[in-house]
Amino acid sequence: MKDPREKLRKFVDVVARLYDSFGEEEAPIKLMKKVKGRSPFHALITTMLSVRSKDEMTHRVAAELLSKAPTPQALCAMPLEEIERILRPLGFYRQKARNVKEAACRIANEYGGRVPDTLDELLKFRGVGRKVANIVLYNAFGKPAVGVDTHVFRIITERWRLLPDAKRPEDVERFLMESLPKDMWGEVNRYLVAFGQAICKPQNPRCDVCPLRQKCPYPGRPTHPSPLQ
Ligand code: SF4
To answer: Is 198 exposed, middle or buried, given 0-12, 13-18 or 19+ CB atoms closer than 10 A?
Structure first.
């Protein structure tokens, strides 16, 4: 069998090229790219809200919240009930409201109004796990970091069987970091999530239109040639 790292690099090359062909409707992760280049506070709050929520809804709700409370001080001062009202369309909105308010207050009071730029410090905020922290490190600070969410985990372990025995997102994170050049670490999340949203979907993967089908080991894929090849 081919070295899984080499196989991964070839796979990521194809998925990176496909990324540009997806529209925002079929791959809503592309909306989140607009977070890049915004303030670290904007990136942190948007990414915290994105957990277990659809990207298109996250984008809309985060824009409303951050237009009313664009700074840590303003969000800290906003009544919890008002934050909950804005976040209501998102899953776990009460918990998220508490978490973003608490994060804003801590940034304002303990960090001099600046979002910390290290994994260890970001992980101290309630509602921030490794995935959120790594995405913020890349999007807000341009640091090489790999965010592993359910799309990334599913595609690498179950669909492409590159790391079939992985149990935790950290296993996939390490595999991606060891296999890909540093300048790919940040973008690989976006490429794989877009591919997972548009083609290699969680429930019904669109194997019939997938350009990678001939090489894919996933047993559910059809065997006739792809119309895209
Ligand atoms: S062939 Fe199917 S399972 Fe394999 S990568 Fe493409 S969509 Fe996913």
So the answer is: buried
Cα separation, 205 vs 200, whole angstroms: 4
Residue-level pLDDT at 70? 96
CA of 59 to the centre of ligand 1 (A): 27
- Atom of ligand 1 at shortest distance to CA of 159? 3
Ligand 1 environment, Cβ below 6 A: 159, 199-200, 205-207, 210, 212-213, 216, 218, 221
Please, where in the chain does CATH 1.10.340.30 lie?
A: 30-141
Mean pLDDT of all residues in 157-175:
95
pLDDT digits (tens, 9 = 90+) for 24-67: 999 999 887 776 667 999 999 999 999 989 889 999 999 999 99
Six token digits for residue 44: 């942190």
- The Å distance, Cα 99 to ligand 1 centre, comes to 36
For ligand 1, mutation pick of 8, 207, 223, 224 (most atoms within 8 Å of CB): 207
pLDDT-derived band at 128, boundaries 50, 70, 90: very high
CATH class for domain 30-141? mainly alpha
CB 42 within 8 A of CB 66: yes
CA 98/CA 93 separation, integer angstroms: 9
Q: Give CATH 1.10.1670.10 domain extents, the chain.
A: 4-26+146-209
- In this structure, which CATH number among 1.10.8.60, 2.30.40.10, 1.10.1670.10, 1.10.443.10 belongs to the domain 4-26+146-209? 1.10.1670.10
CA–centroid distance, 213 to ligand 1, in Å, is: 6
